[in-house]
Design brief:
Elements: E1 3-7, E2 10-12, E3 18-25, E4 32-39, E5 46-52, E6 57-60, E7 68-73, E8 78-83, E9 92-100, E10 110-111, E11 115-119
Parallel strand pairs: 2-11
Antiparallel strand pairs: 1-3, 3-8, 4-5, 4-9, 5-6, 7-8, 9-10, 9-11
Length: about 120
């Protein structure tokens, strides 16, 4: 059974940091692209980062470039999103998703349940 489970969300002050985890089960990461999306209330879901180790590829949206880092621990079958210099506009529910082969804007087969990130003083 394929599953993705996010963790690591929470409440953080502006300028703070969080590390989100996306633990995969039922498949191995080496042949999948894993993306992070986020959705704030009243807004559309936004793709913010993606990793494909098979193609040595990393993607970051302009809104997070230079602040967020995506990485993989293949031994743990887990993808991380390290978020620094967080701002209130980073608030939202963060989802990880998986699709075969390359990072793309859509076509993700598997989704986690999401983890809430709130940036507020």
């Amino acid at each position: 059974q394929v599953q993705l489970e996010e963790s690591g969300g929470g409440l953080v002050q502006p300028g703070g940091s969080l590390r989100l985890s996306c633990a995969a089960s039922g498949f191995t990461l080496d042949s999948y692209a894993i993306a992070w999306f986020r959705q704030a209330p009243g807004t559309e879901r936004e793709g913010i980062s993606c990793i494909s180790d098979r193609y040595d590829f990393r993607y970051y949206a302009d809104s997070v470039e230079g602040r967020f880092t995506i990485s993989t621990d293949n031994a743990k079958n887990t993808v991380y999103l390290t978020m620094n210099s967080l701002a209130p506009e980073d608030t939202g529910v963060y989802f990880c998703a998986a699709r075969r082969d390359r990072c793309q804007p859509d076509g993700y087969e598997y989704w986690g349940q999401g983890t809430q990130v709130t940036v507020s003083s």
